[in-house]
Amino acid sequence: MTSTVTHATLSALVSSGYDTITTTVGVAVMVALLVLLFQKEVARVLLGMRAASWSRAFDVALVPLLIAFLVIVSARLWELLR
User: Fold this and answer.
1) How far apart are the C-alpha atoms of 64 and 67, rounded to whole Å?
2) Please, are residues 68 and 32 in contact by the beta-carbon 8 Å criterion?
3) At CA 32, angle to CA 17 and CA 58, rounded to 5?
4) Residue 29: count of CB within 10 angstroms of its CB
5) What sign for the dihedral angle of Cα 70, 75, 23, 81?
6) Rounded CA gap, 69 and 59, in Å?
7) pLDDT of residue 48
8) Of 15, 33, 14, 35, which Cα lies nearest the Cα of 71?
9) CA pair distance 76, 6, nearest whole angstrom
């Protein structure tokens, strides 16, 4: 099954263009980033004293998403300015 999934993934990536892939991944990262930021703020408001531990837990997920978002945005800007 793993080889089938890998083959299907590779064929989907090869058939799609650069713009389609970066737009799709960019939108997915942006939505995930916004949802996690929203959840972090709701947890901060509702949990009070326990918010510090939840905040650190959300930061673990937010930092890689933020880095991915910045890489995608900079790649898209680089492509536009080139």
Assistant:
1) 5
2) no
3) 140
4) 20
5) positive
6) 15
7) 73
8) 33
9) 26
Q: What is the pLDDT of residues 46-77, one digit of tens each?
A: 877 777 777 778 888 888 888 888 888 888 88
For 15, the token pair is 């058939």
- 3-state SS, the chain, equals CHHHHHHHHHHHHHHCCHHHHHHHHHHHHHHHHHHHHHHHHHHHHHHHHHHHHHHHHHHHHHHHHHHHHHHHHHHHHHHHHC
What is the residue type of 32?
A
pTM: 0.65
Distance between CA atoms of residues 35 and 64, nearest Å? 14
